[in-house]
Design goal:
- Two copies of one chain form a homodimer.
- By secondary structure, chain A is an alpha/beta fold.
- Chain A folds into two domains: 11-124 and 216-225, 3-Layer(aba) Sandwich (Peroxisomal Thiolase, Chain A, domain 1), CATH 3.40.47; 139-213 and 241-389, Peroxisomal Thiolase, Chain A, domain 1 (3-Layer(aba) Sandwich).
- Chain A has 14 helices and twelve strands.
- In chain A, the strands form two sheets. The first copy, chain A, has a ten-stranded mixed β-sheet, with helices on both faces.
- In chain A, strand 5 (202-204) and strand 6 form a beta hairpin.
- In chain A, helix 4 (92-105) crosses helix 14 and helix 8 (166-180) crosses helix 11.
- The longest helix of chain A has 17 residues, at 341-357.
- Chains A and B meet through helix 3, strand 3, helix 4 and strand 8 of A and helix 3, strand 3, helix 4 and strand 8 of B.
- Strand 3 of chain A pairs antiparallel with strand 3 of chain B.
Chain lengths: 390, 390
């Protein structure tokens, strides 16, 4: 895909993430207000600066019967700006950022808000599981597959091809819980051990409870702008690349089960757009909906050689305080920070922005100047990669 | 909203619409294939030309449990390109065109397909009615309101303020059925009379059955490009403006019930972007989900003075073969052609393109060179206006 550059650079100028978790006493309206008002305050912008709203959400229609979330939140936030909802399963947040990025570069809007939001815990778990399968193929749905089962197949294929072990996958969960403990908005604040992961209930063999990201509520918001000169805030992080790729919905139609081809292609395109190489990235938020997914992401994004990601993770090479080149999922990732589906892709941009600004507190990655966010829909049918530069 | 022009013009270069109606023997996959393959053939482009896919759909998640339609149709159409679903209730199709337009002008993609699609008749009517209320406010949903009821309130307000009569509204249905009779893809092929409308069942007083657009299946696709020189097809229609505005979801929160403020604002912005006046428009597809909605649209888009649209319609001033300045809804509109929700906004672009090319057959508007498409979500919370030029 050839990219024709325009002169319109896009910057992240304000970010915010709410607490992620089981937020029984908070409504979607309150979550949206918290995230957007904090992001606008962070950006130093007022409602009159905002020219467009992009909402990333997957489940509101299926679980709550409420669609039309663009106008819904535009009203709730008293913005009354052009608004739309973007959906691509668990990649809805990343796709919303992509749409917002395009809208600014096109000259259509100069400053916009992207809101990612999901409220999952108000519904029966079986309804949530059924709704989430709205991201899978018709055949998978008909067969009664669930996402833990689908990712378990990916795990089995990776174990067979590269000798990856259950302990290797457990190491992803241990690392991401360790990171999450440094993030006050994370759903899980407790460190766990390899043994605890290994002894947790088997959900879809070889994946156990502590290999799986949780069901979460939460929202994240980012303010994007091309108007560097008009906004007083000096905290601008450039969006150097925004790339999307798709693959088959179902696993059965894929050529390989030991990689997510959409991630590879979105990553390659993003590196080209940004003019950087994988080894130039200092910090990345990748889509670890299950522990095996982080292993796949590190390989598909070329942070590790094929079959070598597990070793790098196990050896602490991507852990805060121990990493040499790159830290993966300092926020705690989906596993530790939580995974309110539509919010995740936006939260990743917020986290990378904080890291590049140097405002990530006690989970700060030292000298991070280039970061990457990687958001996946379904079992890899959609992948979105953003690269941010300070 | 200030528009900052880029050098990237966007053209419609291929369009197609499937039959609209109760398509019991056709699946969503088949509808999508029919529309997209025909639009690509019309454009003279091959799959390798297509760099992005934008899907407009509202109800697939709520009615069929299938979300993730970007990747779903990208796979079904064997495109495997960056893809996303855009949702904004009945304005989903228009919003998908808007997102596609922005993506091209940004330089991100050079040639894309927009697919609008909805399959409504496979489901119980009460489920469809409930799902459609996903476009309304929480209060309206809690009160058990339906869209015929909400538009009935708008009709009553207009009748009280301007003396609009039930016969005036009936004239919209009569005109649009007359137009639909010239459109082989239209759901209704039969002319109706004022008397038939007046004697049809009362749905939500003063709206009767024949004041309401039907429940429909159907798909429409358009190919948009910036690559005029690379595509052999000589049938380029320029997208001169793409504008969106939002309002409150619920009617109770509006300042006025005799206009849709979002339509007015999107229209004004589109006229500014395109550098044209309302009187320059030769043909328009407007969102007549109920007959009163066409009356409101004509006034809000400044094709008629406030309170005067009904008279213009009744006098045949916007009817094919009788119009002086502008023909409204030559396709038959939502009322006559049908209203597969997510498809409607894309079908409108397809119809205006055919009209400007001079390929609209026996419903051709003479000497049409500038056209407008107007798509509404809910009872006016979202409005999308596109202006096309030959």
């Amino acid at each position: 895909m050839k990219h024709q550059p325009t002169n319109m650079n896009v910057y992240v100028t304000g970010v915010a993430t709410t607490k992620f978790g089981e937020l029984w006493d908070v409504s979607p309206r309150q979550l949206a207000r918290q995230a957007v008002q904090a992001a606008m305050k962070d950006a130093g912008v007022h409602p009159e600066h905002i020219k467009g709203l992009f909402v990333g959400n997957m489940l509101s229609g299926m679980l709550g019967g409420q669609e039309h979330l663009g106008a819904f939140f535009s009203e709730e936030l008293e913005l009354f700006v052009p608004a739309s909802k973007i959906e691509g399963a668990c990649a809805s947040g990343g796709l919303a950022v992509h749409a917002a990025f395009n809208s600014i570069r096109s000259g259509q809007y100069d400053t916009v808000v992207v809101l990612g939001i999901e409220k999952m815990t108000d519904h029966r778990p079986e309804d949530v599981a059924t709704a989430l399968m709205g991201a899978g193929s018709e055949e998978e749905r008909a067969a009664g597959a669930t996402f833990p089962g689908l990712y378990a197949m990916l795990a089995r294929a990776h174990m067979r091809a590269f000798g990856t072990t259950e302990e290797d996958m457990a190491a992803v969960a241990v690392k991401n819980h360790f990171h999450a403990g440094k993030n006050q908005n994370a759903q899980f604040q407790k460190e766990i051990t390899i043994e605890q992961v290994m002894h947790s209930s088997r959900i879809a063999d070889p994946l156990k409870l502590l290999d799986c990201s949780p069901i979460s509520d939460g929202a994240a918001a980012v303010v994007l702008t091309s108007q560097k000169s008009k906004i007083k805030n000096q905290k601008f992080v450039e969006v150097a690349a925004s790339a999307v790729a798709t693959d088959t919905l179902g696993l059965a139609q894929r050529k390989s089960l030991t990689e997510l081809s959409a991630t590879k292609r979105a990553g390659e395109q993003a590196y080209t757009m940004a003019g950087v190489r994988p080894k130039d990235i200092h910090v990345a938020e990748v889509h670890d909906c299950f522990t095996i997914a982080e292993i796949l992401a590190l390989e598909d994004l070329q942070f590790a050689k094929k079959g070598k990601a597990a070793e790098a993770i196990r050896n602490g090479e991507v852990t805060l305080g121990r990493a040499k080149h790159i830290v993966i999922n300092p926020s705690g990732g989906l596993k530790g920070c939580g995974h309110p589906v539509g919010a995740t892709g936006v939260k990743q941009i917020a986290e990378i922005t904080e890291q590049l600004r140097g405002t990530a507190g006690n989970r700060q990655v030292a000298r991070a100047r280039i970061g990457l966010a990687h958001n996946v829909g379904g079992s890899g049918a959609t992948a979105v990669v953003h690269i941010l530069k300070m």
